[in-house]
């Protein structure tokens, strides 16, 4: 006889902002919890940087790729999400902002409305507080050197003042300095308890590599916070475990089957099928991210016939739009000179411009603009994007060297020639990315094709006024900085890139409106929860990480307040 599957009080699929919070809260309450994460563990110093490492830093196990980045491409929209223990916190830009109170809208869905939030800001306030206490956010300490001289931060403040817009330093889940001490980059970070990696960490080194994974442990990502705490409370954290199927059990609870990639060699397609394992649990929490959770439920829909027909609906990209401000100048002293932005100096995001919903021409949907820094690697790539110019400078250097070697040039000091060959560097130094986000219309739908692939029906048409206004605001910022705004090529083709996909399993009052209730429990399936960005019935507006975590904290509290659950035996349940 086959051995009986290992049983838990709760199985959690995914370790992002929803899964990690649920894992900690349930383990803290004494439940036996197993968390399944498809990606790897990333201790300090393990995030790829070299071209060879980056070549393998994508997620596609069928082709031997078990890396950090999972890129989705649909018609009209592309999405970038993460795969690793800690989920999106490993590569997000650290911003922790609360959803504005007035954006918890309650539109009439039967009369053509798009979103109805069954929770309020007031109901989330305590949960926001609890998440912030765990993630310990700090603002960029601009009162101290070297943080005071962060060029892109000063530039954003200058643009806000010229445009009359609100500017502020957002809370960041980054440690710039130990509590009670003067902040300084690269200092040993003191933690009250060891983290799950058993490794030391440093305060922020201002390297702009947040979105590639922080190799210094300066980010207060979920592996250092919630997951480390969950592990101390006995949670079973299993990485490289990719969930493939799930189903309700006749005797109650749920069964989860996953592929164990732990023994698979990376870098080449697998030569044999990795082992499959099955676990059971009284409660199942899906927190695999918007794309991951929707994909799992759509693929396993036959096992859940009572699922709402609204599965896959109300998708949006949280209004994400990316722009690039280039060749900025500063004429403040009377003589125009290059405005140094130095995008590689500091954390990725340091400051925010907030545009209210009431702004004229915005269609009643406000947005946020943030400076988007980047690693110095991108500055090098940007400077050599014109191969002909680079080649000509190199030829000039080669010509001078040839004259020296042939004795035709007496000056053998070639430092000036080397500097000239590198170019001025001003193209990258005076450029900066802008990240816009806000309240687009959640009218997209995820579905499965006949070939078993996930597809998205989405168009920016319904949000045309919003995106147009956001582009104009970016152009205004570029003009205030005496630069030029460049949109990424795909944007001109009506293709949007989002790093904040939301929806597909929207919260609602009943199953005719959505997939889960206000406590994250799936309609028709007691003990089955969803706790990630897919439960959003509409856009969050600002960076959604804090709201996802606060909702998960609320869901955990509701789950713990209930008695043990047993599903009724029914013909549709599979033993």
Tell me about this structure:
This protein is an alpha+beta fold. The protein folds into two domains: 6-374 and 430-560, 3-Layer(bba) Sandwich (FAD/NAD(P)-binding domain); 383-422. Helices cover 24% and strands 19% of the residues. The protein has 13 helices and 24 strands. The strands form seven sheets. Strands 1, 2, 8, 9, 10, 11 and 24 form a seven-stranded mixed β-sheet that branches. Strands 7-16-17-18-13-21 form a six-stranded antiparallel β-sheet. A hairpin with a 6-residue loop joins β14 (329-330) and β15. α3 (121-135) crosses α13 (545-560), α4 (151-163) packs across α11 and α8 (387-405) packs antiparallel against α9 (415-422). It starts with 5 loop residues before the first strand and ends in a 15-residue tail after the last helix. The model is unreliable at 566-575 (pLDDT under 50).
Write the layout of secondary structure elements.
Elements (H helix, E strand, L loop, with lengths): L5 E8 L3 H12 L4 E4 L14 H5 L3 E2 L4 E2 L2 E6 L2 E6 L38 H15 L15 H13 L2 E3 L57 H7 L3 E3 L2 E8 L5 E7 L15 E11 L2 H11 L13 E4 L4 E6 L2 E2 L6 E2 L13 E4 L11 E6 L3 H8 L3 H19 L9 H8 L3 H4 L2 E7 L6 E4 L5 E4 L6 H17 L3 E4 L1 H4 L3 E3 L3 E3 L23 E3 L14 H16 L15
Parallel strand pairs: 1-2, 1-11, 2-8, 6-22, 11-24
Antiparallel strand pairs: 3-4, 5-6, 7-16, 9-10, 10-11, 12-23, 13-18, 13-21, 14-15, 16-17, 17-18, 19-20
